Structure formats: C-alpha cells, structure tokens
Amino acid sequence: MVTQRDPIGDHFDARASHYAQGHSWVTDSVSLEPILSLLAHCASGVAVEIGAGSGAVASAIAESPVRLRSYLGVDASPSMVRRHVAHAPAVVGDAHHLPVASGRVDVVICRQSFHYLRSPDVALAEVSRVLGPGGRLLIAQIVPFQERLDEAWWATGMSIRQPLRRHLWTGARLCDAVTGAGFYVESVADLRRRTSLNQWMDRYPLGPAARGALVRHFAMTPPPVKALRAFDESGGDVAYDLRWIFITTRASRTSRRPS
C-alpha cells in the first residue's frame, strides 16, 4: 500500500494516457527479449514487476510463447494501473512494501524503475522476502557506458531532462547495490539500442530553458563520447546509442561481485 504522496507517482499519472505511444524504449521488442528469455526458464512460475507502467512487459509476455502461472504488476501511479493491459492484473503499490506474501515469487522484474526508488536497500530486502527458493531478480536499466567521460556526460543530461530520478546508476553501482543487499549476480548482459535527442525531448513536456540546456549539452559533447555513442548529427537531430544492462541475480547470504 502507498502510504505517502510520491512525486514520482504524480509524474507518471500525468503521462499515463500516452506513456506507451510512439517510438520509445517502453515497447521496444529487442530490449524486452532478455526478460522473456529469463521467464521462459521459469515456466509455470510467478512473476512480479516493479514499476509495471501500462503493461509493456505483460503485453510482451502475452505475445510470446512464455506461460506463467501468474503475473502481478506493481506501480506507484494509480493512472498507470488503471491503464495496465486488461489481461494481466496490476495494483497500486510501493516497491518498499510489496503487496505479496513471503516466498511466493519466482521472478521479480525491475525494468527502468530502479532509479526512482527512495531506498534501494529497503526495496531489495522486500524483493528478497517475496522470492521463493531459487527465485531471481532481473534489473533492466539504461545506464552510461563504462567510461568516466561518458558517465559524466550522461549524468549531466539526466539532471537536465529527468530531475526526478533519485539515483544515477552505473552498471558497477547496480552490481554493488544488489550484492551488498545479499544477492548473487548470475549474469550481466549489455545491449545497444538507437535513439535520438528529439525523441527523448518530445516524449513528455520539457520547458524552454531545460530544452535549450539539453540541446547545448549535446552540442558540447566531447568527441570520445560522440564516437562511443556513434553520434549522427543531421536533419536538426542527433541519433545516438543507448546502453541497456540486464543484471540477473539470485538471493544469497553470500555477496560477491561477478568476475
């Protein structure tokens, strides 16, 4: 149960009616595939999704050969929950107080929502509580590439475009967070996907000052970052690469970083 007003919930309430429309990461089948691949190995299992939005993951499951015993979407936004795909249940809830009995879940999915958590340690403890023996947590997150110059460039862009983010995760920090909470990292996989500056700016309202700041930030991108992200500056837009990371973990009493 949500016990306090959360600005993140308000933000997504305002975006709910058009969240999954247009070209974006939300419904990108390629970045959904690693989730389906994990679920395929948990046939007849129980899955919980934290930050389920309007149901992109649930829709992908329904359109795939994956068959689960049950799926539950959890989201802080009542408007998102109301718009969640009708064939899969979803509830208004808080990742820090999951509305699920202990030890009943086979897979917890956290796709592009880990950066909004108030207290990642508390949320991870909740995930550990609801997972049954052999249960897995999959974090799918867009992060910077593993170069300090790119990390700094990405953090500045995020602070302009998405100031409500509570955390600016890198792949290494995510691994530290989950292992520090007692999870064992089974695998870490990367995926490049193409996007553009205009697509990012147009996904939801951005004030003129912030829009100008973001355009200037991209114009001043250091050449090594442009090369790393395969910048293509043409037609008044900038196409570039994003980096997805997929971290699959098991709950464990022993913490260690993957080699």
Automatic annotation (TrEMBL):
Question: Which CDD domains does the annotation name?
Answer: AdoMet_MTases (cd02440)
Q: Name one GO molecular function term.
A: S-adenosylmethionine-dependent methyltransferase activity
Pfam families noted in UniProt: Methyltransf_11
Q: Which InterPro entries match?
A: Methyltransf_11 (IPR013216), SAM-dependent_MTases_sf (IPR029063)
Methyltransferase type domain mapped to chain residues? 48-139
The lineage's top-level taxon is Bacteria
Q: Which PANTHER family match?
A: METHYLTRANSFERASE
Record's protein name = Methyltransferase type 11 domain-containing protein
